[in-house]
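Could you join me in thinking about how sequence relates to backbone shape in a protein? We need material for that, and I hope you will provide a protein of your own picking. Label the sequence line and the structure token line clearly, so we can match residues to local backbone shapes. Would you write everything just below, so we can both look at the same thing?
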Amino acid sequence: QVQLQESGPGLVKPSQTLSLTCTVSGGSITANYYYWSWIRQSPGKGVEWIGTIAYSGDTYYSPSLKSRTSISRDASKNQFTLQLGSVTPEDPAVYYCTRGGRTTAYDYWGQGTQVTVSS
């Protein structure tokens, strides 16, 4: 059974960088041919795909967020990390990490973590 768990600060100041880590158990993030994604949900924007990192380490980003998004991984810890820079009042949401993306279904999800942007 694959399990994902998000961690990181729930409160970020405007213009700062949001950093969230997803710790995966029950499956390797480098195993062929899985993809791992970040998705967020907010009342105003609904569900929004942020980006994906592949088993190969290749990354894919939402065009609307690409300029300030970076997804990386630490294979030794079986973790992948989201960094979203220059946060604004448009960025508060529940952030989820999930297995899936590209052509594969989102089949396992973390519980989600609420992120608030406030000074």
User: Anything to note?
Assistant: The CA atoms of residues 70 and 83 lie 5 Å apart. The chain has a mean pLDDT of 96. The chain has no helices and eleven strands. The two ends are 39 Å apart (CA to CA).
